[in-house]
Amino acid sequence: MEYENEEFWAIIRESGGLPTRAARIMAKTYPNDPDKKLTRQAIWQRCNRKKEIFDDIRNQVLDEAEEILQSIIRDKKTPASVRLKAVQFYLERIGKHRGFTRKIEIDGNSSHTINFKD
């Protein structure tokens, strides 16, 4: 018996949007039903057919990760060295549009001239 839509997406949510983990959950939940044991590739294909739902699940996980990172930054009990690394990581990723970055990205579509010195 194949997965119903709600059941499939509930497992994808439980897996955090990771197809390999979802395949393990399916195999463990339905060990005697070969129709419910999907491969990682089959899960990817099905997720990509409903990209909006899949992207929403992945974005929820990103929000949770960002929340954890921010809690590390705010927690005064966290060692200073850990907080500093968290702040650096956050600024380099989230604050790069404000100049907090270690590398410069160049868009090849720009009409500006770039001069390199030897």
Task: Characterize the structure shown.
- With 118 residues, the chain is mostly helical.
- The protein folds into two domains: 49 residues, no CATH class; 39 residues.
- Helix 2 packs across helix 3 and helix 4 runs antiparallel to helix 5.
- The radius of gyration is 21 Å and the shape is flat.
Care to give the gist of this entry?
With 118 residues, the protein is mainly α. It is built from 5 helices and no strands.
Write the layout of secondary structure elements.
Elements: H1 5-14, H2 19-29, H3 40-49, H4 51-74, H5 80-94
Tell me, rounded to a whole number, the average pLDDT. Answer: 88
In N-to-C order, the SSE pattern is: HHHHH
Number of strands: 0
**Helix amount, in percent?**
55-70%
Q: Uncertain spans, ≥5 residues at pLDDT below 50?
A: none
User: In percent, how much strand structure appears in the residues?
Assistant: under 5%
Number of helices: 5
What is the CA–CA distance across the termini?
A: 66 Å
- In total, how many domains does the architecture comprise? 2
Broad structural category: mainly alpha
Broad shape:
flat
Describe the sheet with the most strands.
none
Please give the radius of gyration in angstroms.
21 Å
Index terms:
118 residues; mainly alpha; 2 domains; 5 helices; flat
